[in-house]
Structure formats: C-alpha cells, structure tokens
Amino acid sequence: MKIKSVIWVVDFCILLLFNGIQFSHGDDRKLQSASSEQQPYRTAYHFQPPKNWMNDPNGPMYYKGIYHLFYQYNPYAAVWGNISWAHSISYDLVNWIHLDHALNPEDPSDINGCWSGSTTLLPGEKPVILYTGSDTKNQQVQNLAVPKNLSDPLLMEWVKSSHNPVMAPIDGLDPDNFRDPTTAWQGPDGLWRVLIGNQMNGHGRALLYRSKDFVTWSRSMVPLHSSNKTGMWECPDFYPVAIDGKYGVETSSMDEVTKHVLKASFNNHDYYILGNYTPTTDEFSVDTDFMDSGSDLRYDYGQFYASKSFFDSSKKRRILWSWIQESENATDDIKKGWSGLQSIPRTILLSESGKQLIQWPVEEIEQLRAENVSLQSKELKGGSLLEVSGITASQADIEVSFDLSNINEAEPELMDPSWIDPQILCSQKPASFRGNVGPFGILVLASKDLTERTAIFFHIFRSHDKYVVLMCSDKSRSSLREGPNKVSYGAFIDIDPQIEKISLRSLIDHSIVESFGGEGKACITARVYPMLAIDKQAYLYAFNNGKFDVTIASLNAWSMKKAHIASASRRRKLHLN
Ligand SMILES: *[C@@H]1O[C@H](CO)[C@@H](O)[C@H](O)[C@H]1NC(C)=O
Ligand SMILES: *[C@@H]1O[C@H](CO)[C@@H](O)[C@H](O)[C@H]1NC(C)=O
Ligand SMILES: *[C@@H]1O[C@H](CO)[C@@H](O)[C@H](O)[C@H]1NC(C)=O
Ligand SMILES: *[C@@H]1O[C@H](CO)[C@@H](O)[C@H](O)[C@H]1NC(C)=O
Ligand SMILES: CC(=O)N[C@H]1CO[C@H](CO)[C@@H](O)[C@@H]1O
User: Fold this and answer.
1) Euclidean distance between CA atoms 425 and 526, whole angstroms
2) Could you tell me where the beta strands, DSSP code E, fall in 75-113?
3) Signal peptide location in the record (predicted)?
4) Whether the CB of 267 sits within 6 Å of ligand 4
5) For ligand 5, atom 1, which residue shows the shortest CA distance?
6) How far apart are the CA of 138 and the centre of ligand 5, in A?
7) CATH code at position 547
8) CA distance 68 to 158
9) Which ligand is in closest contact with the Cα of 336?
10) Does some domain include residue 9?
11) Confidence of residue 510 (pLDDT cuts 50, 70, 90)
12) Number of domains in the chain
C-alpha cells in the first residue's frame, strides 16, 4: 500500500517560531532582494509593511506579553484607499510579525473604509476596538469590535458588534467630520468616556461621549474642549502624565498628581496642550491653549502626524507612535510600491518644569546598536568639518553633545522668540550660513563630495539677558533630485546653554532622520531621498559653521542592525505519492 506522506512547505526559508505559529520573511525578502538601487529608501529598523500604503497607527496596546500595532492600510496599492486595519505584533517593539488584517471594510457601517480608532482594555483584560467607519452613505460613524477568542494572545480575529454603528452623526453633527475615537477612560461614576474629533463652524473640537456598557453612548452637551483658532481636529488623544515625571500613567488613572495632555492633529502637525482635568465634572482647564501666542507645543516640528499613545503596563510607561508620511509625490510612491513609515516608538514624560513633554526612543531600540565610534572633548574650530567614520552612516544611531565656551559671542539680533517662526529662521539661516555661535551640528546622509547632505544643527542667539537655542533640520541640500520636498524644519529648545550642554540624538535609517534635541525637549523628523548618499556611499560629519569654536563634549555613534520584520506565512500542503 502506498503511503501518502504529507509535508508542509513554507513559502520562504527563514522561519521564526512564535507561539507555535510559523512565520517567514515572505514579501519582505522579495523586496530586500531587489537591489538597494531599486529600493534605496526602504528602512531597516523602522516599522513598515512589505508593500503598499500605510497611514495612522491605530489601537496600539500591550496584551498578555505582546505588543499589538494596528494601522491604516490599503491592501491593493501604494496610495490611500480601501482602508483596512492591518495588524502586527511584537515582543520588544523592535522586531515585528505581520498578521492577517483585524478589520476589513465589508459591512454597511464601514463599507467605505475602516478608519482610525483606538483600543481600550476593559476590566478583566478584555480589549475592545472603537473605530470610525465610512458607511454606505459615506457618513462617518463609530463602530465597536471585540476579539473572537480572548484566550488567543495574538488576537488574530476580531468580531464587529451587531449594534454598529454605536455612535452616529445625529443632532446636527457634521457627518464628514466625526472621527477617530480615543482610548476610553473610566470616571469615578463608573461610566466610560471617549473623545471624538469633530468640527463645528469650521473649528476643531473634541466631543465627549459616555457609556456604561461600551455599546450605548450618549454625547455630553459640552465638548471636552474646543478652539476658535484651528480647523478640524483629527486623531485626538487624551491622557494623564505624572508630575514627578518618572513613569507613565494608565489612561483611567485618576491620580491627582498628574496633568492631562490633549493632543489634536491639524495643519499637518500634532499639537498638544497641558491642563488639569476634573473627572467628576469632566472639566478640562488648560494651562495655555492651542495657537496661543508664545506657545507652540508640538510632538515633533517635522514630518509627524496622526499619532497615538498607549500605556505599557509591563514597563509602566506611555508610548507614542506616529505616521511618518513620505515627502515625495504619489507617482514616486507608486514606483517604489509603498508609502509611509511609523516613527520609532517614543516614551512620553512631563518635563521637570511641567511646561512641556519629553520624548525619547524606547530603550529596546538600543539592542540594534552594533559597531560604534566615540569622541570626547574634541574642539570644532569655527568653519570646520570633521568626518566621523567607522560606522554605517545610512543606518545609525548618533548621540552628541556640545560645550560652548564662547556663548557670550552669540548674535544678539533675535527679538522675542514667541514672535518668530523658528522654521522660517532655519530657512533664512541654513547650515551654510556663517553665524557666530552656530550653526554647528551634524551632517547626515551626506555624499562624499557633500553635494548631498541633511544638516541637523543648533544656532544660539542672545535675546535680552537670555540665550535662545534654535534647532534646525535642514533638508535644502538633502537630495540632488528635483522632486522631493526640501523644506527646513525648526524649533526653539527650552534650555539654558549657560548651564546645560546642547545635546542631540539622531536616528538615521536610509530615508528618515528622527532627531531629538535637548534630551527630548524638541523633536524633528525629516524624510529625505538622497541619490548619491545611499548605503555605503553615505557619510557622517560633525560641523561648525559659526565664527567661534565649539567643543564636542562627547559623540557616540553606532551602526544599527536590521530589525526582523516578517510576515505570517501561508503554509502550503503538498501531497506526494
Ligand atoms: C482560542 O485560542 C486558544 C489559544 O490560542 C486556542 O487554544 C483555542 O483553541 C482557541 N479557541 C477557539 C474556539 O478557536
Ligand atoms: C470663540 O470666539 C468667540 C468670539 O469670537 C468667543 O466669544 C468664544 O468664547 C470663543 N470660543 C472658544 C471656545 O474659544
Ligand atoms: C563601543 O564598542 C566597544 C567594543 O568595540 C565597546 O567596548 C564599547 O563599550 C562600545 N561603546 C559604547 C559607548 O557602546
Ligand atoms: C513627482 O515627482 C517626480 C520627481 O520625483 C516628477 O518627475 C513627477 O513629475 C512628479 N509627479 C507629479 C504628478 O507631480
Ligand atoms: C481591489 C479593490 O477592492 N479595489 C477598490 C479600492 O477602492 C476603489 C474605490 O476607492 C475601488 O474602485 C476599487 O475597486
């Protein structure tokens, strides 16, 4: 008798064992095996799907030992459309496995798209998703979904509620501007609260809904907050931060030693304000409001939008994810077959001053650090350039700090920084500008001949009896190509250079440079598309274009290894006689 042997063949040869499920590098490997000449802009340690369009991060959470990230995804093309919730999991926020989609647009309440939303962990560790659906009439509604099998830590399958939609644009709400539910929090009366982004008469507001059971929701007559000075608020986020600044705080925690952060996405940026929230009355009294003169608090002053935070109970920290859009056009995206990255996840804390947030890449990313170079107390003469060699400059993590002994020579021309747009100042005084104390900093993704380079630098000005620290990310010379957007970004950093070192950390990954100035007080993310400065042809320099000398107090730079980002393999069954 012939025995039919059954063997399992996995699509590709690299296997990871993950809770007994087999995964392969599938599409990723195909893309990577395409030469880097064809894919010079794919990243090595940022989160991205194997192909196609990705935008907002959705519903990040930590559940039974696993980090989950969902995100807005088009399964069919590298442009926005047919939006589904893609789903990936990780043990360490660095290495990821792509699973099947959690939500697809196939029901009346989301047939035109499963748009952004959040997860909430209900008591007994029961996760639920609230998300925006675009319904049969293209109206925005809010929907509920729950895991099919709570014992599955991967939460592979989700079931949409038969009560959907659970919130509809009734009573005069604009059905085109009613979206992006936050993670819910529970008040002292036991009711759940959630915010929905909305606009009224062209202005942004965060609607407040309450529910006992997550299914029946009623809208508070008063929004949690609104503003006359902005348009529509997308992707609101609302969470407590500890005043002692050491740990993250769970979203429902009503500890009184917190402030609350309200974030809203508008004008292509993620703006936030700080204030005091009173859970018994749902009043939110803000310290300084959105667009108030003299205040411009943004998570990031570069390319960074539609972010979302979550509380990581395993390490008691709050983590922020964000969509990092391309700075090329759709034709370029279609050609490369993909569009969009996620930022390196960042921890968020309140600064000691209580006036702003501090962000820093999650510590796990440091496991990718490989060879390093290190410099201490190195003088950078006015007008000098120093090559930093010995690492892979296209895929690197750099930490540098500067001492300024000539600070009193800073140009005295700056008036009140609250009336000056730092972004304009950075384009008026780019890296090539000859100042006094600055510009000094680093040139990344630079070609050997320096015709291509992205400069991240500081420039110190004197303003009355104080010093003002300007941080710039100058893309004006980032590529010889004509197409990509090359605006410069800028921010003022709230530090006193007389007593504090000027520090910078930059994460460089082929087409992205994420920079953290003043130990996370000002962050600037830039997307760049060099033609020459790719892979081994990328160089790193420190520079000082000011007239006065500065000192590199210390510089540590590491090559970064590639993260493992794999797809769940579809196993094929072969029958052999
Ligand atoms: C639920 O998930 C657990 C853990 O993966 C699995 O053992 C169990 O068979 C699943 N139950 C169903 C009904 O699929
Ligand atoms: C909006 O502006 C009007 C005056 O134009 C003011 O009375 C009102 O309080 C403002 N509302 C908010 C929320 O700022
Ligand atoms: C740099 O690498 C050397 C080994 O080559 C190691 O001893 C040293 O600790 C590393 N320095 C840093 C700052 O990681
Ligand atoms: C997109 O940019 C490329 C250069 O990168 C240019 O050749 C093309 O004409 C642009 N397409 C559109 C539609 O703007
Ligand atoms: C494959 C697929 O379903 N594509 C659809 C994506 O959405 C557009 C409309 O936005 C449809 O025309 C496509 O058929």
Assistant:
1) 17
2) 84-90, 96-103
3) 1-26
4) no
5) 76
6) 15
7) 2.60.120.560
8) 13
9) 4
10) no
11) very high
12) 2
Q: Which two tokens stand for residue 188?
A: 């002292």
Q: Is the CB of residue 451 below 6 angstroms from any atom belonging to ligand 3?
A: no
Q: What is the CATH number of the domain that holds 57?
A: 2.115.10.20
Please indicate whether residue 82, judged by its CB atom, sits closer than 6 Å to ligand 5: yes
**Which of 226, 228, 273 for mutating ligand 2's site (highest number of atoms within 8 Å of CB)?**
228
Domain that holds residue 161: 52-167
Q: Which helix (H) or strand (E) holds 52?
A: strand 52-63
Contacts of 170 (CB under 8 A, 6+ apart): none
Domain-embedded: residue 377? yes
Count of beta carbons in the 10 Å neighbourhood of residue 367? 12
What's the whole-number mean pLDDT along residues 427-439?
Answer: 97
Helices (H), 15-122: 26-33
- In a 13 Å sphere around the CA of 336, the CA atoms on its Cβ side amount to 24
Give the distance (Å) from ligand 3 centre to CA of residue 157: 44
Query: Computed from CA positions of residues 158, 163, 164, 165, in that sequence, does the dihedral angle turn out positive or negative?
Result: negative
Contact 555, 378 (CB under 8 A): yes
Domain boundary among 118, 140, 167: 167
> Looking at the domain assignment, is residue 218 inside a domain?
no
pLDDT digits (tens, 9 = 90+) for 379-405: 999 999 999 999 999 999 999 999 999
* Distance from Cα 486 to the centre of ligand 4, integer Å: 14
Residues with CB under 6 A from ligand 1: 149, 151-152
Q: For ligand 3, say whether the CB of 556 is within 6 Å of any of its atoms.
A: yes
Question: Which pLDDT score, from 0 to 100, does residue 338 have?
Answer: 98
Which residue's alpha carbon is nearest to atom 2 within ligand 3?
372
382 Cβ partners below 8 Å, 6+ apart?
A: 544, 545, 546, 547, 548, 549
Among candidate residues 11, 27, 28, 56, the one labeled active-site is 56
DSSP 503-532: EEEEEEESSEEEEEETTTTEEEEEE---SS
The Å distance, Cα 372 to ligand 3 centre, comes to: 6
Q: Is residue 536 part of a domain?
A: yes
pLDDT digits 0-9 by tens, 532-560: 999 999 999 999 999 999 999 999 999 99
> Looking at the predicted structure, is the pLDDT value of residue 306 above 60?
yes
Please count the helices (runs of H) and the strands (runs of E) in the chain.
3, 41
Contact assessment for residue 504 and residue 517, using Cβ atoms and an 8 Å cutoff: yes
- Sign of the torsion angle spanned by Cα atoms 293, 298, 302, 304: negative
Q: Confirm whether 56 is a catalytic residue.
A: yes
How many angstroms is it from 338 CA to the middle of ligand 5?
A: 17
| pLDDT at 567 (0 to 100) | 85
231 CA to centre of own chain:
22
**Which DSSP helix (H) or strand (E) runs through 427?**
helix 422-428
CA 215 to chain centre: 30
pLDDT at 84: 98
Q: Residue 348 pLDDT > 90, yes or no?
A: yes
76 lines ligand 5 (CB under 6 A): yes
**In 10-158, alpha helices (H):** 26-33
∠ CA 490-494-495 to the nearest 5 degrees?
A: 115
